[in-house]
Amino acid sequence: MAPRTHWLFGDQLGPHFLDPRHGGPDAHAPVLMIEARSVLRRRRFHRAKAHLVLSAMRHRAAELGDRVRYVRTETYGDGLAKAGFGGRGSRLTVCHPTSRAALDFVTKRDEVDVLPARGFLLPQAEFEAWANEHTGDRLRIEGFYRWVRRRHELLMDGDEPAGGMWNLDHDNREPPPRGCSTLEVPAPYSPAEDEIDDEVRHDLDRWERDGEVSFVGRDGPRRFPVTRREALAALRRFVSHRLGDFGRYEDAMLAGDPVMSHSLLSAPLNLGLLDPAECVERAEKAWRAGEAPLNSVEGFVRQIAGWREYVWQLYWHFGEDYRGRNALRHTAPLPDWFLDLDAEAVTANCLSTALAQVRDTGWTHHIPRLMVLGSRALQDGWDPAAVTDWFHRCFVDGYDWVMLPNVVGMSQYADGGRMTTKPYTSGGAYINRMSDLCAPCAYRPTDRTGEHACPYTAGYWAFLHRHRTALSANHRVARAVKGLDRLKDLDELLEETSERGDRAP
Fewer CB in 10 Å around end: N or C, the chain? Predict the structure, then answer.
């Protein structure tokens, strides 16, 4: 009997998705890939993201050669019909998709058999068993992270964590080195474009010119891997040349150095070009060989084996109703300047810089995402569902499973504390301490009111005031809420904040 065809989605592009071990597809099974134009029509994606995904898919098809049937069509349903599936006796397999919409689609197709998920460290059943044994509705990352470390024997010395501590966060919160415009570390891996990239860019130009699709942001040159070879090269360069400086400046920002010492591996990981196990194992090997400090390696391991895995598992654990959570009842629409990535319209240097980075690359690291972009949305009361959609569309590493927990739970506190213990927002003092963005700004991080009032400082206090009743019971922010009583200019602050409305700060 001939092996069944295996369907590869556009984020299942690594060799582990065609590995017959552990319940994978049959060895040498024919492969189907479907490039569905409707995906790009449904949302106004970042142009660089559209280019990255299509380039990665077409590169994978070129690698598979005669083994793959690559169908370009309007919808997935059309693609299956065009490939001859849907009739009696025609069957194919697919690895568990990464979104609820895709999973619903494949499970409703009689001809599709769904295999276990790949590209993550734990089966969903194992996470559910762990969740049921622990804190019920209020799960926390730290307990999960320790369990994964033990489960996979990551950075462990017997039964104890390497170095005697589970979490080295206290060593990974240094501000940027004073007087430096860049971190002065070797540059990250930079891929070279080829004729496939040219073809994708030509198609995107044509589709946009014909009015079939609309994009936001700028495209080119490509900054992220689209093949397994490129992804491995990026991983090797990070571990060999950049990992050592990653930890201490993990939370720092520099206007002239948006990448700092971050790995830039989230995009190839989320395309399925890298497996998380190989990433954390290489980092641990570097530490044991004396080639990288423990705090940097632990911070990197925590990003992947802790947070990334946690977000993936919670996406499925919380269920579809989580998408509509809005505990703070924020309903304001996203302003046009934010939707259009109009950095020039923004005076606040930190926000203008972060927005320009998104516009130009489709990427920023986690602190601008959380403490600049997300914090602006939280302070101004933007609809968390719309904020989630924006992050999904505008980031090259953004997928539904990535952004739903990250934005609803972490960034916008829209689940009321189900995922994190407090809202993540701050005044300008935090940004000033952790960056070089405030000195040249027209606003002053210490000013709450007046011409030079920092929109983050004013916005922070306005946010606490707006949610004073709910947040006064939160032990992590209750002290800050009480600080409202000491603000003699609170009325003036609230009036100025209200007058600004949704204008770019």
Answer: N
**Token pair for residue 113?**
């058999």
Mean model confidence pLDDT for the chain: 94
pLDDT digits (tens, 9 = 90+) for 278-308: 999 999 999 999 999 999 999 999 999 999 9
For residue 53, give the H/E element and its range.
helix 47-64
Q: What is the pTM of this model?
A: 0.95
Q: What are the tokens at 364?
A: 């920023």
Residue 12 has, within 13 A of its CA and on its CB side, a CA count of 25
CA 293 to CA 303: how far, in whole Å? 16
Contacts of 166 (CB under 8 A, 6+ apart): 142, 145, 146, 149
Q: What is the pLDDT of residues 419-476, one digit of tens each?
A: 888 999 999 999 999 999 999 999 999 999 999 999 999 999 999 999 999 999 898 9
Backbone angles phi, psi at 382, to 5 degrees: -75, 150
Query: Hey, what amino acid is at 503?
Result: R
Query: Hey, what are 380's tokens?
Result: 């101004």
DSSP state of 291: S
Contact assessment for residue 306 and residue 122, using Cβ atoms and an 8 Å cutoff? no
Identify whether the C-beta of residue 327 lies closer than 8 Å to the C-beta of residue 11.
no
Q: Residue 84 — φ and ψ, nearest 5°?
A: 90, 20
Residue 338 CA neighbour count, 13 Å, CB half:
21
pLDDT in tens, 162-214: 999 998 888 888 999 998 999 999 999 999 999 999 999 999 999 999 999 99
For the cut 60, the answer to whether the pLDDT of residue 136 exceeds it is: no
- 457 in Cβ contact with 448 (< 8 Å): yes
**Strand pairing class (160-161; 156-157):** antiparallel
- Closest-CA residue to 119 (of 226, 13, 250, 5): 13
CA–CA separation, 201 vs 226, rounded Å? 14
Task: Provide the token pair at 296.
Answer: 């940097």
* Contact assessment for residue 341 and residue 218, using Cβ atoms and an 8 Å cutoff: no
CA distances from 172 to 108, 167, 251, 302 (A): 46, 10, 7, 12
